[in-house]
Structures are given as structure tokens and as C-alpha cells.
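Justification of computing resources. Each target in the renewal requires a structure prediction run like the one illustrated here; the chain below, 463 residues long, is used simply to show the kind of job we budget for.
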Amino acid sequence: MLSSSTPHRRTSHTTSHTSRRTAHRRAAAVALAGVAALIATAVQSGTATAAPDPSPAKGNELVKLSPAQRAELIRDADAAKAKTADELGLGAKEKLVVRDVAKDRDGTLHTRYERTYDGLPALGGDLVVATDAGKTEQVVKATAKALRPATVTPKISAAKAESQAVSAAKAAGAERPDANRAPRKVIWAANGTPVLAYETVVGGLQEDGTPNELHVITDAATGAKLYEYQGVENGTGNTLYSGTVTLGTAQSGSSYTLTDTARGNHKTYNLNRGTSGTGTLFSGSDDVWGNGSASNAETAAADAHYGAALTWDYYKNVHGRSGIRGDGVGAYSRVHYGNNYVNAFWQDSCFCMTYGDGSGNANPLTSIDVAAHEMSHGVTSVTAGLNYSGESGGLNEATSDIFATAVEFYANNSSDVGDYLIGEEIDINGDGTPLRYMDKPSKDGASKDYWYSGIGGVDVHYS
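Resulting C-alpha cells:
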């Protein structure tokens, strides 16, 4: 009899899909070799070369930090943040807030900071400082503009900003939009001259039933909408059942639960067609989950739990990152969201992944690459912090697709062979084609192969 804190290995039954498509392997090897740097360091703009070297210099490789080592580096950076602000020439009203730290093998530290001005969060004021032996080597800023807003006294009320934000959500097709909390005053520094603004987060449901977390930035002087982005990061994937697999569970008395004690206590819950709340933790007396049929509620849970475990192992064993935040704490998964819901999504607010059951509730979106895609949204959020809009949103989605593919290959599962197609099995298009192609994105009829000046206006899944 195992205690509730002891990791327990059990068997899950799922059905493998019989059709497999030919893997598309060109070009993606280079992308995967370089994308690891996105986990904890900023991307600095510059001139792209036609044939980048996929092998980084040894000194530039990231050190695999344990949660304790990372926490210590963050404490050190926090203790020195006032000195760092002074060295960077920041104004008296500007303060630094440490967000994350990465370390190269040559000893260079990359510290990501957010900024405040007069106690207000500066959105778009984040920066990355590279130091070697305590000496600043490079600073990468999201904006070159100095944080000197004309005033921190608003001319319009918070209520007016909230009303305009709710109207923006309604215009986007949201159902029952309502502000989740009172608008907060911020400094908007992402575009042009920094100004005082309100940030309002609007809840409710998006047009397709996905939870809504629309962030609307309103100029506190003029009432003009400056920016908006969606806080719920979603992606559509395929249902690739992974055969008979071993999962981490926990035992208490004669009952077992889908609690992976070896991976930060990651839990998997049943929403049972609901669209809110945590749901009910999957439990059972036999420690065998699912029967390979979508009609069995445990099957989708088994797939989601397995995908979460593989993604945890990939980030830990390949990149030295323990969990999404790098602190050894697991997120959680929710399956059976809504009715005929054809999507899956990541939410920062609950630190969780959520999966629909697809058309007819017959094809749950709980495959390996979907789980990895959603968890990678979480990693991007706590590191690079890419907004889910414009070019940053495209980078956000692309990063999740790339790491999802890496996890699929890492899994080495004979029932779910790694490939460079996204959504090739579930046939959401109805014609046997995948959702996205990584060898030539434009083959899906919507994605772009190359950057161009207007690409920020394209849907983030295709840019």
C-alpha cells in the first residue's frame, strides 16, 4: 500500500490511430536547434542571415539550473536591482522588478526585469540585462523611449475605461462580457511616447465558447483605445491516442487519483461539459484509466495526463527546467470542457490547460502535441511574456508549435510517431489535411512562409 505522497505508476489504455502520415523533416531541424534560447532570453532585433549556424557557441549554451539555483540567482538580482537601475540611468521614479534569470556556460547572466513608474506597472517597459562577472555587457529593451509620461493623473474615470473595454469585447463577439476586476492604472510604453492608461480585463466567453480574458488598454487622458490582446492562448490540435502507457498517480487507502507526485503534483480534472471551475479530480479504485474509447471519460484524461508528463520530462531533461515556471510546481489539466468544443487553451489566471472533446464530443483534443503546445504557452508567458496579438502573438504560437513537435519526437512513442505536421490526424478540415505544415507553412492556405511588414495583422496561428 503506497502513501498519498508516493509516486505510483499505473497503466492507461488508449487507442492508437492506424493512419500515419509521412514525416516532413526539412528545415525544422535548424529551427528546433535554435529555439531553446527562447525559453529564458529575449530576442534582439537585427539582420537575419540566410544560413544561420544551428550549433550555438559552447559559451552561449544555457546552464540547466535547478529550482534552488534559479531562486538564488533571482534573490541576488532582486537585492541588486536598485544598483542596476542606477547603472542603467533610470529615472528616480523608475523601479525594476525581477522576473526571471538565465545563465550561460561562460558565466553570463541574463536577467529579465519589468519596470514600474511612480508605483505603476510600465507595460512594454520590460528589459533584459546581460552581465558578466557583475559588469553589464548588454541591455535589450522592449522600447527605447524614456519613461517620462506627462502626468499620472487621469482625465477620464475608471468606469468610462471599463465601459469602453466591455464594448470592445462585445464588438469581438464575446458573450456576457464583464470586467473581471476594476481597471488598473498603468504606464503604456509599448508604442510611441509612454502615457498614463487604464488596463481592463474583460471576462465572459469568446464567440466560440472559449473563456474570455480580453485585456484592453485605454488612454487615461483621451479615452482612446491604445491596444488590446487576448489573455487566453488557444490552439487547435489532433487526437493521437498513444497506446498503453504508464502514468504517474497517487494512492490513498484503496483509491487512486490522477495526481503525478513525481512531476510537481500535476493533477487532471473532469469538467464534465462545464465551462467554469476546476472540475472533479479523476479518481478510481483500480488504477487503470480509460478503455481506448472517447465514450469513456477517463480516456481523454489519460491522454492529457500522459502529454503533461512527457512535456514536463522534455523541459526538465533537455532544458533543465523543472515545470512551467521552473520552480518544480506542476500546473493542472481540465478535460471535457463544454459541448462539441473544438479547441484547447492555456490560461495564466488558473495556471492550467483545458481541452474540449471536439465535434460530436468524439475527438478530445488531448494528444501529445496539443498538451505540449499548451504547456509551452505557459513557459513563454513566464519567460518572454509575449502578448497574444500581432507579431508577438505569432511568435507565441510558433514557439508552442515548435516545442510541441520537439516533445512529440522526444516521446518516441510508436503509436504517435513524431512528424512536422500539426493536427494531421484529427482531420478538422474534413479533407484529410493537417492544420499546419512546418516544412512549408503556406500549404495550409493561410499561413505565411516569410516575414513582411504587414504580418502583424494576420491571425496569430498563421503568422
